[in-house]
Amino acid sequence: MVWLSKDKLIEALMKENSELKQLLYSLNTSIEQLNQTITELNEKLNKNSKNSSKPPSSDGLKKPVTKSLRQKSGKKPGGQQGHDGANLATTADPDEVKKHLPDSCKDCPNISKCIDKLACVTEKRHVIDAVVTVHVTEHQKFTFTECPFHEGQTLQGKFPSDISATVQYGRNLNALVVALNTVGMVSVNRTHEILGSVFSIPLSTGTISSMVKKCAQNIKNTVDTIRQKVIDSAVGHFDETGTRVEGSTIWVHNSSTEKYTYLTVHKNRGVEGMKDNGVLNKFHGIAVHDCWPSYWKYDITHAVCCAHLLRELTGIEENYAEQIWAIKFKELLLEMKRAKEKAVQAEKSELSYYHLHKFDIKYDSILQEAFEMNPLPVITEKKRGRKKKGKILALITRLSEYKESVCLFSKNFVVPFDNNLAERDIRMVKVKTKVSGCFRTKNGADDFLKIMSYVGTAKKLGINSYVAIRNAIAGNSDFIFD
Predict the structure, then answer these.
(1) How far is it, in rounded angstroms, from Cα 321 to Cα 314?
(2) Packing angle between helix 171-181 and helix 188-199, nearest 10 degrees?
(3) Which sequence spans correspond to the domains of the chain?
(4) E strands along 99-224, which residues?
(5) Which of 93, 204, 404, 476 makes the best surface tag, with the fewest CB within 10 Å?
């Protein structure tokens, strides 16, 4: 046994104590990191379209059940008084009439006399059905070798300018093909299968692709006009979403208004993609968006989508029960929304000073509480770059930094509360991706988005999609502006 002197024993114990402290600190740090990782993973697991920016398509079969943000209107469910409705209407001029007689009268020799004199129709029922037929028009060009009024000349008829081949498909079939592949989101192969079965026409997949491409070429100038009209608008809605082209993720950029829809696709989600879209770099109105950082690169008036904020706040409320400020901020946004709606109903153009001042004080008070609960991270080590804030503090900082843009909807009544218009315009990209899969080529994606820009604008202007496509095939796409 080795005996240590008192001084050496104290020195050994102090060294052991220091090592144990370092070990304890290391273990506590690891526990904190693991707890943070568990919290982040639980938050990620609990994310859905109702409490984050994830699209509804990502929810799968397990749809989230959350409390609706909508307030009760007091109205009964169903169609309201004065609603036109949509139903099958009877017709006074049917194409075919079938008479149904009593069983005992079917073989009676006097049935014709009885029908004329003794019987009456007590009830009518109509069956509306579609009869699919193929209509073939033959165009014949005549040649006259002799004419008494044009001696020595051979006279020939001319085919219409749109009749360019020995056998070709007509405008109605062209429009149906394009409508199925774009508006209907049906893939080229399934379009080929469906039309081949219904019409018994050998419509190849290559022909279908050519029809879509030609339609996109016909509307190029019209789509350019749509882009310019969005640029010139007072309020614009902007959003972006991912899709797949040639096995890679690329981004669809949307710029739209109440009347116009403009869509493009680019490999970059940020400024490069927005620049390629060609609207924001020339836009001078109010841009409504979901606060994606790239939008703030543009020196214009910004308005933040408050529906996105509500979803983020809901996520914090569901995953962090101690973050009471998130509930208060949700209530504040909804209170501001209700106040604006009441003012609009009263035909006012702005909120009173009382309301604006009250909301301003509440806004700052809630954020102060939020910062107290989530202080800025303390820099303990000298590392390059900014200290990671975390999602909660990042949201609080964003709400503080962009306060004017968040509250703009309550101060300027032309600014909407949310960016739902842009989300609706871009949602069909997700539908197309889910139904038909990825785009095979970038050119195919460009053609699809040109047509959807044109059709989306036509629908906003009250024009039927099929009618709009048929006019585009005929070279008359500008009619939507008439």
Answers:
(1) 11
(2) 140
(3) 325-377+387-416
(4) 143-144, 155-156
(5) 93
